[in-house]
Design a protein that fits this description.
single chain; 216 residues; alpha/beta; Rossmann fold; binds S-adenosylmethionine
Length: 216
């Protein structure tokens, strides 16, 4: 439940941003460019979610991060802020056009040596991946969230965190006759909740982030 009036929402968002540590210029520009130069600007994490990802990553201090769904690189740049010295973030996507934008902005950032972009279908990549990660962010094709979860759980170190975006799917998870994509997200959330290898918390901000911790 919100503690403020609906009509004050935008003003309060601006107030929150103005009273929070200023973010790097390249992130503000990348958010703007993601809206201007792609037809899918809505997908970019943006300031609020970006700061949450950055803060979580800084609390974990991961050595290795895997991201499924680069888009224009905004979330990768935010997650990379928490990497340990010498740590690495691998980000997967299938869209070469959006990848060019990601590359350009990553090259302008202090993280150009720590972020590796791979253009490949995520499932194809994951099925051959033998690495282990401290933090995984799932933010790609929703129909495969459950498959990604099962594979990623084995790639995640004990005590590691897996974050999954869009788990409230614009509120459609409440629909009685959900469409295929919504049904996949409902199934994913159920699967996580029932899995005894993890504990989780759905953070109901923006489109919902499922924060999942691997127990052992
Ligand atoms: C919501 S966007 C990612 C947004 C980004 N994480 C951010 O917060 O700025 C989802 C991305 O997943 C990618 N994607 C969709 N299906 C994929 C697949 N099978 N393998 C890898 N990436 C995929 C899309 O091309 C798109 O760039």
């Amino acid at each position: 439940m919100k503690y403020f009036k609906q009509e004050d929402e935008f003003k309060l968002e601006s107030y929150a941003k103005e009273n929070s540590t200023t973010i790097p210029k390249y992130l503000d520009e990348l958010e703007r460019i993601s809206h201007l130069n792609t037809n899918s600007g809505r997908m970019v994490s943006g300031w609020e979610q970006g700061r949450i990802l950055s803060t979580i990553s800084k609390m974990i201090r991961p050595k290795s991060i895997l991201e499924i769904g680069t888009f224009t690189g905004y979330s990768a740049l935010c997650l990379a802020e928490g990497l340990q010295n010498g740590g690495q973030l691998i980000s997967l996507d299938i869209n070469p056009e959006w990848n060019k934008i990601a590359k350009k902005y990553i090259n302008q950032s202090p993280y150009h040596d720590s972020i590796k972009l791979i253009i490949q279908d995520a499932l194809e990549y994951l099925l051959k991946d033998k690495s282990h990660y401290d933090l995984i962010f799932i933010d790609a094709d929703k129909e495969r969230y459950s498959q990604y979860f099962e594979i990623c759980l084995d790639l995640l170190n004990s005590g590691g965190f897996l974050l999954a975006d869009n788990v409230l799917w614009s509120g459609k998870v409440l629909h009685e006759n959900p469409d295929k994509t919504t049904a996949s997200i409902i199934e994913f959330n159920r699967m996580v909740y029932q899995n005894t290898r993890v504990e989780n918390f759905i953070l109901p901000i923006r489109d919902g982030i499922n924060i999942i911790r691997k127990l052992q």
